[in-house]
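User: Please predict structures.

Assistant: First:
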Amino acid sequence: MNLKLLRTVLLLIITSLGCNTNSVEDTVLQIGGYKLTTTELELKRQNDRYKPLGKQELEDRLIEEGCILAFALDNKYDTITTLNKLLEYASKSFAARVDGFVWNKN
């Protein structure tokens, strides 16, 4: 009986420790709503686009990209819907052209 209780408690402790997912990632760069963590930074450093850059060039590029992404996140800028609108307008304009004349000028 005592052995079963000990196994159950041990199983509960191991399960609770294994399920603890409170891993804290250090934020390297934060601009507005954009955060760059240490793991993302390491992945970017291994990327072919960032390998030839020096330390200062890498920092400048990350800050520039961070500003762009922060602006997009803060203003809820969605490029996919904008591109879908442009595609719809372009297809309507193409369909409206007959013999070089655009029927719908608006």
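Second:
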Amino acid sequence: MFPLSCRCRIVSGSSHVFLRTENRELGSGKLLSAVETRVEDVTDLSNYNVPNADCALLKCVLVFLGLENRQSGQSFQWMVNNFCKSDVDVGLELVATSLLPQGSGLGTSSILAGCVLASVAKCTGLEAEKLTRYCDNGSHDLMEAVLKVEQLLTTGGGYQDQMNGLVGGAKMVTCATAQFPIHLQTERLHMEHSFQECFNESLTLVFTGKTRLAKNILRNVLRRWALRTPTIKKTVAGLVKGAQDSRQAILNSDLDRVGRSLSEYWEYKKSMAGEESGAEPLIVREVLAALHRRGVVRGGSLCGAGGGGFMVLLKAAGVTTDHLRKVLAEELPEESEVSNFTWHDCKISDAGLSTRVLSSDAPGHFDITWHSV
């Protein structure tokens, strides 16, 4: 199940831009919450750089792609028509849907930004070269566009979320040292079929119930990196080596080494954020310690910058998710926050971002099959 999607359509006879963000239940597609807004004038886009504003991410994409053409001196309706390449008055409808909780740590905003960029580009018929740039699976220009959208949104970030979420399979992403602008190189890693099956069987995602805005932790990371202390430089060197070790472990079909790299990665992430950052909630520390102590996991880490959201675990051979839950019930007090955890199966997706054109879609209709892997 792909958890993120965006739908875009041009509406004949309309005179505004309709924006909507939805949070739906994973599996059923049941609507949990929604925020929507009508953009009827260029000034209605002015709060695009306020992360908590209604539909801010959608506004950022539209601004980035050029809808907000203040220099034209034309009406907002002219801007919409021009953006949609229409000779008659039209409106634009944009609906972004997430099946994940906010603050999940899974790179939701970056990946969703890529979905929105591709959807708008496909729908409005951006010129051929831009369609390739923004819709081609794995295009580095799309990754750059996502970065710029997040800079407009002021949430920061880098390339890691969109590279891992919009490009399928296991991959190694690198760039040349001290070369600007940054040029990314992506190596898709071949996984033996039997190893990938074993990998998928071992993977478990755990939602801790704790959410956070990654922006706050990332600011701390950047401040510490700017100081270039010996500890930070050693940590960064460890992160680079860890990525190289993980690559080799995957190519060698060594799942135990992948697990150790995952745990080492978590220790390096905490070091980058600092002890006072809140990157590792106490309950997460207790859970990881208990699972390692009982030898039921190969490795584990919080996703994203840390601080909450989802935790990814690689189970030990022969261990089931139910076994993990039983171990935690034995190791931790009954009143611990583990009772609020939700457990999810997951797997590596060989497919990345894709776009499709639907012949019809009734307003407000939601089809969960769009999210099927």
